[in-house]
Structure formats: structure tokens, C-alpha cells
Amino acid sequence: MIAHPDPASLPRRALLIGDQRLDSASGGTHTHVYPATGKPTADVPLAGVQEIDAAVAAARRAAPLWAGMPRDQRRDCLIRLAHLLRENADELIRLSVIDNGIVVSTQQYGPHVAADLLLYNAGWTDKIGGDVIATWPGDALDYTLDEPYGVVAVIIPWNGPVYALGMVLAPALAAGNAIVVKPPELAPYAALRFGELCLEAGLPAGTVNIVPGGPEAGAALTGHAGIDKISFTGSGTTARHILASAQKHLTPVQLELGGKSASIVFDDADLDAFARLGLAGIVNNSGQGCINPTRLLVQRGIYAQVLERLSAAVGALSVGDPTDPATVFGPVIDDRAVTRIMGMIDRAKADGARLIAGGERLGGDLADGYFIQPTIFADVAHMSELSQCEVFGPVLAVLPFDTEEEAIAMANDTEFGLAGYIWTENLKRAHRCARALVAGNIWVNGFTGIPGAAPFGGVGESGVGRLGGRHGIQEFLRPKNIWIALD
Ligand code: NAD
């Protein structure tokens, strides 16, 4: 039986505005449920319009203080925050598991990756500047200044709050912006602790505000006149609502959205290396990861062998208690996700896909939690729902192909373009395919985290803009051009 979190071990307050922690708010409450037990943990207060207004006002007061802070001091605040994330990693990981039920063996990377991102971006604080522009005709000096936007609204999903906050806040803060974060009501706990650590690190009160809430709070924030830029991570459906709110004040928007990323396995691939990661698409976060390789395209000569290896690997997965370090596969987020995912499984069967593993909700000791068996479908039709739509759950679609051209065409024949994966021992083919795939991030013969210096983002339905590296910093800066007559 999976232990339910002790309510006494949860943060009593859920909102952080300026330096004030609030335990009640005007947006009502949300009964947060621990996905592994299906039982409530607490009634979490939700931000309403009143708290969104207060958080934006606090951020507007803090913005000039943070942007005006000497660069070395801003850098040192971010370095201190990185160290605090590491020192408080155990607590952040514990809260993250309660937030969304994702297994501790995956969550353990969150605070450390966020700390690395802060350290990388801290290095930019004293390198952000501008350019000198050639002038002609006449004697003049023309130069640019890269300036922060002011106040950035940050909307994150539930599937990795600490990681998501690291991805967005590290560059946005390094660039000199103040922030209002709206975590989802489904995962409110770790984000609040992240905000408290920002205060402990010496960021001026109001530089980072945390206001958990649902769609109403999100709409109030993204349509607010006091917001200068929006960073949204979530689904394409919500992105369209955000764009509708943002048009009110023509607020610029950066979007990190979903994916249906193809993993192409050629018949010259190192199948032992591939086999270790072949189930990544459905094991990572129980399939609830934007970049997961959820569409496996396998060259026909090795198709049967790959299917055999995948079904054997599914049987060896340890499924269950997310707090147990040995568990690799946990529950999905909530009962609505169970209904949605089981619906897609049923429709895949009806579409003629061949179920080779899983396909059921787990019972027994796990019956109260939101556990769905790791599921694999073979012979999935290329234009079917399972091949084209994001499941955001543990369901892998496997499709055969014959030629490289066919594989690339199938991989690109989707509305998404977040990631692409290539498995081959042929160097020329690897480069050829990496160039041909229409996606923001390509992995060849492996699948690891993204270095802080690398740009991350998608094309098409997968998003607009980039986080990470110099592109990520640039996302949160806008250039001002200055021309001065010298004659
Ligand atoms: P979602 O779009 O339902 O919600 C995301 C956030 O938007 C939540 O905080 C939610 O409360 C808020 N929201 C909902 N309606 C809103 C509105 N009208 N106005 C403003 N905010 C609103 O997505 P989700 O279910 O939380 O996350 C899953 C999706 O996120 C998947 O599609 C996944 O691929 C994507 N995702 C993308 C990345 C990436 O970096 N590209 C990372 C993680 C998740």
C-alpha cells in the first residue's frame, strides 16, 4: 500500500506576493489530490483577480530595483539561489513528488538542473550589453542597449514545476526582469518553496511572486496591463487562450508547447544502446513529458526484433510507489488524465493498432491511484490519432518504415516539432537526418538532459521562441537603439 503524504508536512501557505505568504485568497480553493493514492492532500487557496493585481503591483515595484542592482550583485543573488536549490533539494524533491506523483528517481534531477541553469545564466548578467552600429553618412555614434522587459508573467504546467521554473526564471531574472509565476493548481507545493528560496537568496521582495491558480487566474495575469512579456509552457489549446488575452495589450508571448516526437531506429543502430532508452517515451514522467519520444519509427528489417525487446523491457519495469527510489514508473496526474488516456487506448484498438503490452488501468494495491500500465501499440497507422496526437500518458506508438526518405517524411508529417531522435551507426546519415528533421532539438544515439548553454524550444504546434543559452537570455531582453550626433 502506498503511504499518503502527512498533511502536516505540507506548506501551510500557498501564495507568495512580495514578501508576504498568504494562506487564503479570493480565487477559492482547490482540493489537491496525491496521484499515487487518489486521496486529497489539502485544500489549496487559489489566486483570484485581487491577488493577481497585488502580485503584478509587487513585481512592478521590484522591477527597477532588480534591473538597477549592480550586475555583480544580481549575479551573486542568482548564484546564491542556485546553492539554496541544491541545499534544499531533498525538500523540493519531496514536494515535487507530492505535487504530481512523478517518481523520485526522475524528480531528483529537478533542483540540480534548475541550479545549473541559474549558474549558467548568472554568468550572463555582466555580459549583457549591446552593439555599436556603423553610421553613415555624418559623424554620429549609434549603439544599442539590451534592456529587460520589466515584468514577465510565467505560466508553467504541472509536470515538472522546479525544472520549468529553472528553465524560465534563470534567463528571465538574469536579464533583469521581475516575475509573476502562476503554477497550476494541480501542483502548487514545490513552486511556492522555490519562491521562498528566491527571497532567502536576497532577491528584492516582489522580484519573484508565486500565485497558484487555475485558468481564471492565468487569464487575469496574461491579460493584465502591468505585464510586459508572457512566457507560457503548456498545451497548444491553452496557448491559444493566452494569445487571445495577450492581444488586449499586444503583450509579446514566448510559447513552449507539446510534442509528438519521432524516434527513428535504422537497421544499423546499436540495438543494445537503443534498448536502454527505447521505452523513454512512456517511462519518463509516465509518458507525461513534452520531449518524450512517443512515436517510434523502426526500419522493417529489425521491426520484429525491436518489438520483442520492447515488450520484454516493459515487463521488467518497476511500477508503484513514487517515493521509492527503485520505482521507475508512477501514476498519471489525475482522474481526468486516466479517462483521456484510456479513451485514446480504446480508440487505438478500434483503429486496428496491435496492442503488444499494457492497455489497462492498474488494479490491486494501486487501484486508488491513477496508474495506467505502460502501453505499446505496434502497426499504428501513420495518420491515426495515436500517431498524430500527444497522449501525455504512457502509450507508445510503433510504426515500421522501409527507407530513410520515408522515415523523414513520416517524422515530419505532424503539426508538432519539438524533438527528434535518430538511432544509427552511420555518421553521414545521422547528420543528414538531423538536418532534415523539422524540430527544435535533435538527439542522436542517446537521450539526455539539455545543457544550460543549448537553446530549447519547438516549431509549429510545439511553440515559439527559445529558452536556454544565449537565445534564452535574448528572449527576455529588448534592444533600444541610441543615436548621438557627434559633428
Ligand atoms: P495546460 O495548457 O492545460 O496548462 C498549463 C498552464 O496554463 C497551467 O498553469 C494552467 O493553469 C494554465 N492555464 C489554463 N488555462 C489558462 C488560460 N485560459 N489562461 C492562462 N493560463 C491558463 O497544460 P498542462 O496539462 O499543465 O501541461 C501539459 C502540456 O504542457 C503538454 O502539452 C506538454 O507537452 C506541455 N509541456 C511543454 C513543455 C515544453 O517545454 N515545451 C514542458 C512541459 C509541458
Automatic annotation (TrEMBL):
<feature type="domain" description="Aldehyde dehydrogenase">
    <location>
        <begin position="28"/>
        <end position="482"/>
    </location>
</feature>
<protein>
    <submittedName>
        <fullName>Aldehyde dehydrogenase family protein</fullName>
        <ecNumber>1.2.1.-</ecNumber>
    </submittedName>
</protein>
<dbReference type="InterPro" id="IPR016161">
    <property type="entry name" value="Ald_DH/histidinol_DH"/>
</dbReference>
<dbReference type="GO" id="GO:0016491">
    <property type="term" value="F:oxidoreductase activity"/>
</dbReference>
<keyword id="KW-0560">Oxidoreductase</keyword>
<dbReference type="InterPro" id="IPR015590">
    <property type="entry name" value="Aldehyde_DH_dom"/>
</dbReference>
<feature type="active site">
    <location>
        <position position="256"/>
    </location>
</feature>
<dbReference type="InterPro" id="IPR016162">
    <property type="entry name" value="Ald_DH_N"/>
</dbReference>
<dbReference type="InterPro" id="IPR016163">
    <property type="entry name" value="Ald_DH_C"/>
</dbReference>
<dbReference type="InterPro" id="IPR029510">
    <property type="entry name" value="Ald_DH_CS_GLU"/>
</dbReference>
<dbReference type="Pfam" id="PF00171">
    <property type="entry name" value="Aldedh"/>
</dbReference>
<comment type="similarity">
    <text>Belongs to the aldehyde dehydrogenase family.</text>
</comment>
